[in-house]
Amino acid sequence: MSIEYLPTICPYCSCGCGLYLIVKDGKIIGQEPWKEHPINEGANCPKGKNAYAFLYSEDRLKMPLVRKNGAFQETSWEEALNLISSKLKEATPENFGFIASCRNSNEDAYVMQKFTRVAMGTNNIEYCGRLCHSPAAAALIPAMGGGVMQTSQPEIELADCFFLAGVNLQETFPMIARRVFRAKDKGAKVIYTDPRKTATARHLADINLHLKSGTDAALINAMMRIILDEGLEDKEFIASRTTGIDELRDFLSKVDLEEAERITGIPLEKIKEAAITYAKAETACILYDQGMSQHYVGTDNVRVHANLALLCGHAGKPGSGINSMRGQINGEGSGDMGCLCVFYPGFKRVGEDSAKLFEEAWGVSNLPTKPGFTYIDMLYKCSYLYIVGGDPMMVTPDVNNLKKALEKVNFLVVQDIFPTEISKLAHVILPAASWVEREATHTWIDRRVQKIDKLIDPPGEAKPDWWIICQLAEKLGYKDKFNFTSSGEIFEEIRSCIPPYKGITYERLKKTVGGIHWPCPSEDHPGTPSMFLQKFNTPDGLGHFQAVEFKPPAELPDDEYPYVLTTGRSIFHYHTGAMTRRTPKLVDEVRRGFVEVNPEDATKAGVKDKDIVTLETRRGSIEVEVKVTDEVPPGLLFVPFHFADSCANVLTIPVLDPSAKCAETKVCAVKMEVKQ
Amino acid sequence: MKGDMYIAHSTDKEILEKAEYGGVVTSLLKFALESGKVDAVLAVKARDGNRYDGVPVLITKPEEVIETTGALHCASPNIARFLKEYLDGASDLKIAVTVKPCDAKAIIELAKRTQIDLNNLLLIGLNCTGTLPPAKATTMMKVEFEVDPNDVVAEDIEDNKLTIRLKDGTEKEKNLTELEERGYGRRENCRRCETNIPVMADITCGKWGTTDNNTTFIEVCSERASDFITAAIETGKIKVEQPSSDAIETRSKKDEAAIELARQWQEKDFASLKEMSSDERQNYWSEQFSRCIKCYGCRDACPICYCKHCYLEADRGLVTGGEVPPDIIFPMVRSFHVMDSCVNCGQCQDACTMELPLSRLIFMLNRELVSIFNYEPGMDVEQLPPLKTVPNQELSRSSA
Lengths: 676, 400
Hints:
CATH architecture of the largest domain in chain A: 3-Layer(aba) Sandwich
Radius of gyration of chain B: 22 Å
Strand content of chain B: 15-25%
Largest interface: A-B, 48 and 45 residues
Largest sheet of chain A: 7 strands, mixed
Oligomer: heterodimer
CATH architecture of the largest domain in chain B: 3-Layer(aba) Sandwich
Helix content of chain B: 25-40%
Shape of chain A: globular
Helix content of chain A: 25-40%
Number of helices of chain A: 24
Radius of gyration of chain A: 24 Å
CATH topology of the largest domain in chain A: Rossmann fold
Number of domains of chain A: 4
């Protein structure tokens, strides 16, 4: 008998917590705390505590499946890959699209974008980061020179003020909430914007700003106006490290505070309290998430918070800044690797120069120089689609409409670990190895690169994602460019062409518990926990103010659709539910989807707890169980997006942010009726 | 026989070279395997040579025992849980286990609950004055000792000092209480722990009472260990001599001093809780438990919790599923179910995502109960916990 404690990193969110798996004769039989890991010191949240059950779910994909006469049939890798390569030979750079995932490893993501660019000749490569944190890059590259998290997780504790902008921290990032509690115990103040009275509002926040959904810009403009009126801006920081203050000052002088009160629904006194608390702090840290991003004005929302940070000098030192909180294990890494239609690896903007750079690096010619389609566009415009580790049929707005589009495509490949909603529409389904079934690196929330070792074998014929793509490249005649025999060889290529990763090696990662933060330019460099300490990454090294006019949400309630619908997450489930809904303990906590309804609205509508109601928008309708709670204010309904059987994104509106192409999944108008 | 004491050292050259304090523990473990006394050894070793990361290892080959030599002050894996959960309570495997006092106590409590078969175990006790939380310890090495944590090759806790030895042979020491007041040093439960010599194990081994770094003071604590030690001596695996009365006295004095320090910590830690008014206390604990995110970390880490189907699970109907924080009944049930038998191992607090002072609370309650019921958990497998010895009569009266 062999029984071992083997360390790994949690497969769920982007904190990157350590845990021990107990492996007995090749099978995981338990998990135990890894107390040395600097992120979680032996503690794990409900999902992290149930990290491995999904691996052993009976419906894991174990064999390649090919649709024949309307049904899926098991087949060999050889046959599946031959079929795919013959179909992809029909595709053109204009009608082929590849969607990678925040769940892929860096090595997988790197190979996928290289395949798309080299073998398919197109920049039609995207990943689900487009649907959550694309506004970070769009707003923060101009403002500060990078859309990444600026401080490291441990350094968060240095702050004496937190601005949690639309992030329900206690439920969605519990291990970061723990650091905020630590800071709070030393006297830090917590400001929180969220329409809902979440656990974070009730137990973590000191100043709750329950704004109306989608009114962030109006709130922050008002706060900045107050800060200037009170003379609380950081004059020295503004003078030495920023540019554009005069334009911002002019713009803010026209902001009407009473109008802001009316738009946001927050009493002016409260706005003032928040503004003064943030401005007066020694080190203030903005942590933000989808509450800000998933609006058609997501980029504007990020810009306005960047302005606030620059105005008060709360950037460019450890524990401060405006920090995009990527929600998934490789939310940062898949972007770093270039799975975006506008960026080659290392955030090199798509164009002649970048194409040339990578033509040299990869020894190829004719790399695409024009941006590809963004995620949602690609789904509607490409007739040859390759989708890995994600479920657009759960996460894109207006999925009924998407379904119609996908039913018409010429060829759809889905590569995943389970059957998903989108795999029902696929022509070929390929089984992928997951998590500890292969060796790989990921890049977590604070640019923290850690390595996950292979601890068990994948089920059946499942293979690592990178292996599958390399086989396919070989079939298409690109063997010499994809001649990788291990993830380690891919990582060596990543190091050679993405400068911030240059100093990170598998050997170093093996020895460094907690990993290494990029940028890490050389092998003797310790990595960079905090960004922008000396200067910002903009061409002139300065922080740039970008004045932002408030714009109301695209679809507001009316007589026919009287409620605002907002969507989001729960602590016990994860994104599309593919992993957590196959985890018995988490299913016991929350079995099915629900809609949160304020007691006042429930009375008016004549619904009670556990009733089944129909929610209907101009796009479609779902049936869902009612949860009467004052977590939501009157007029607002909340539906989590984890549940395929009451899919929130049937309802949401497909209006996109013009710069980031992120969708407005946080606000639309909806009606609610008791199911007859 | 039980009560015998020796000053001992190994005779194995390889072990003597690598081990500390004469390599007695390593030699005894190896002998236990070689002689067929046990089928396996369960000990703790530094994973990949990293002394901040001690993991339990199950060894069946005598020659591999040497990999577990040396004290790891930053390791506090849950040995009792490992036995119960992953080795089926040693039901069909005879195992020699190295145990700190809290490990031994937890194993005994689980044996009372028929979760571990004590007859199949040989508990080799290790004297312990506390373990350090590893993540904080690495920071402490950098911040307080100003050394690279990877350069540390040994730690020692003695006379309220923490001494570290570096690769180059140099030593650095700091006052332990001062470190602890700054948030470093030992785990909180260890500071309060009054059991330094695990006499509830079969054998205890420690350096107290020895005068050099080449011997170990051992005490035989059970009859079955007596034969084992005798065989180890007779086959020449260890060499022993009788401790002088000075040595025995030094050992007790060191123990008493450590106990006194622990009592001071108890007094200090508990005072802050006890001094609160009833309202303050309620507010304090409500606030603390409002941070709970229902990860079940405390329950799963607790060696006393053993129910196969816990009353607090979402499908049992007592605590509504899906709510964060859970109803206050959750921490109440947790506390009441274990407080009579808490062995102050601190695993619950280590595993708590929200760093709630769980071990402080439950051990404080336990100390109250100890005085009421005259029951000390983890000491004697024959002594059943108070909650298990409530007569039926009393139960029916309370439910009437």
